[in-house]
Amino acid sequence: MDDEAIHSVVKRLSRQHPSGGYVIERAAIVAEGADSQEILEWIASHDGRPEAQVSGAPSGGLHRERMEAGRATSSAGPRRYVLPPGAVN
């Protein structure tokens, strides 16, 4: 993909972020298929960064470990990427 095509995809998949920039879901990038690695590289080259994950309040009680046993771990990568203001315009 050329730079213009990747920019178009990122613009289509992203939305406003409270920081004033844009946010794009990792799942949406991966859903683009074979071009997903090029999109991630484009994001990194345009000062995009993984969004810091905020851990929620402890919950789950007595059965928390059993309930989380089947879930993916956080090592799968960031959930979202944040781009600075003006990167997607």
Radius of gyration: 16 Å
Strand content: 5-15%
Sheet of most strands: 4 strands, antiparallel
How far apart the termini lie comes to 19 Å
Can you put this structure into words, describing what you see?
The chain has helices at 3-13, 26-30, 36-45, 64-68, and strands at 15-16, 22-25, 49-50, 80-83. With 89 residues, the protein is of the alpha+beta class. A four-stranded antiparallel sheet has the order 1-2-4-3. A hairpin with a 5-residue loop joins strand 1 and strand 2 (22-25). The longest helix is centred in the N-terminal third of the chain and has 11 residues, at 3-13. The mean pLDDT is 85.
Q: What would the keywords be for this entry?
A:
89 residues; 4 helices; 4 strands; elongated
What does the secondary structure layout of this molecule look like, with pairings?
Blueprint: H1 3-13, E1 15-16, E2 22-25, H2 26-30, H3 36-45, E3 49-50, H4 64-68, E4 80-83
Antiparallel strand pairs: 1-2, 2-4, 3-4
In short:
By secondary structure, the protein is an alpha+beta fold. It has helices at 3-13, 26-30, 36-45, 64-68; strands at residues 15-16, 22-25, 49-50, 80-83.
